[in-house]
């Protein structure tokens, strides 16, 4: 997802992509972002 690449936060991912918190966290992990 481009949003993850741009450093979107987990909240932004859940809102804009309709993901659950867990899915958004997984996305950020897969893309190597350490969003904490």
Question: Secondary structure elements and their pairing?
Answer:
Elements: H1 2-5, H2 10-17, H3 21-30
Helix pairs in contact: 2-3
Structure, described:
With 36 residues, this protein is an all-alpha fold. The protein has one domain. Helices cover 61% and strands 0% of the residues. The chain contains three helices and no strands. The chain has helices at residues 2-5, 10-17, 21-30. α2 (10-17) packs across α3. The longest helix has 10 residues, at 21-30. It is globular.
Structural classification: mainly alpha
Average pLDDT confidence is: 79
Would you report the number of β strands?
Answer: 0
| Cα Rg | 8 Å
Helical fraction equals 55-70%
Question: How many strands, which pairing sense, and closed or not: the largest β-sheet?
Answer: none
Shape: globular
Number of domains: 1
Number of helices: 3
**End-to-end span in angstroms?**
19 Å
Low-confidence stretches: none
**Beta fraction:** under 5%
SSE ordering: HHH
In quaternary terms, these chains amount to single chain
Organism: Pseudomonas syringae pv. pisi str. 1704B
Protein name: DUF2802 domain-containing protein
């Amino acid at each position: 997802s481009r949003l993850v690449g741009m450093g979107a936060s987990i909240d932004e991912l859940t809102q804009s992509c309709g993901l659950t918190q867990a899915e958004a966290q997984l996305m950020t992990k897969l893309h190597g972002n350490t969003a904490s």
